[in-house]
């Protein structure tokens, strides 16, 4: 059974940083393409960052240069380091495995105040 558990969200002021974690079970993150999505109130869920099986990364233009996706194979965990946070980054953040698009965790709330 595939499970994804996000954590690390919180409330920060603009310019601050947070590191989100996604602990995976039932899948091996090192051999799966993994994504981070976010959903702000009243908006559609959007792709924020992606890491391929080979380790290549891609980012939405809105977070490029500020966010970094990475993974720890030993911990079977995917991370999203978020720096220089802006109020528009406020959202619930979710991780997702490309091969298991239908499986979502509970998400973790990130709130950035100005």
Mean pLDDT: 96
The separation of the N and C termini measures: 40 Å
- Helical proportion, percent range: under 10%
Low-confidence blocks of residues: none
Structural class of the secondary elements?
mainly beta
Strand portion: over 45%
- Mass-distribution shape: globular
- Specify the biggest β-sheet: 6 strands, mixed
- DSSP summary, beta strand count: 10
Please, how many helices? 0
User: What strand line-up does the widest sheet have?
Assistant: 2-10-9-4-5-6
Query: What Rg is obtained from the alpha carbons, in whole angstroms?
Result: 13 Å
Order of helices and strands: EEEEEEEEEE
Characterization of the model:
0% of the residues lie in helices and 50% in strands. By secondary structure, the protein is mainly β. The strands form 2 sheets. A 6-stranded mixed sheet has the order 2-10-9-4-5-6, with no helix packed on it. Strands 1-3-8-7 form a 4-stranded antiparallel sheet, with no helix packed on it. The N and C termini lie far apart (40 Å).
Short descriptors:
mainly beta; 4-stranded antiparallel sheet; 114 residues; globular; 0% helix; 6-stranded mixed sheet
Concise account of the structure shown:
The protein contains no helices and ten strands.
Walk me through the topology.
Elements: E1 3-7, E2 10-13, E3 18-25, E4 34-39, E5 46-51, E6 57-59, E7 67-72, E8 77-82, E9 91-97, E10 108-113
């Amino acid at each position: 059974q595939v499970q994804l558990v996000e954590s690390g969200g919180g409330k920060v002021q603009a310019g601050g940083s947070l590191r989100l974690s996604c602990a995976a079970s039932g899948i091996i993150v090192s051999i799966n393409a993994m994504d981070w999505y976010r959903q702000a109130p009243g908006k559609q869920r959007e792709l924020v960052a992606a890491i391929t099986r080979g380790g290549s990364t891609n980012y939405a233009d809105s977070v490029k240069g500020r966010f970094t996706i990475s993974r720890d194979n030993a911990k079977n965990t995917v991370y999203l380091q978020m720096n220089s946070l802006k109020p528009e980054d406020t959202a619930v953040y979710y991780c997702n495995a490309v091969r298991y698009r239908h499986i979502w965790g509970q998400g973790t709330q990130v709130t950035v105040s100005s």
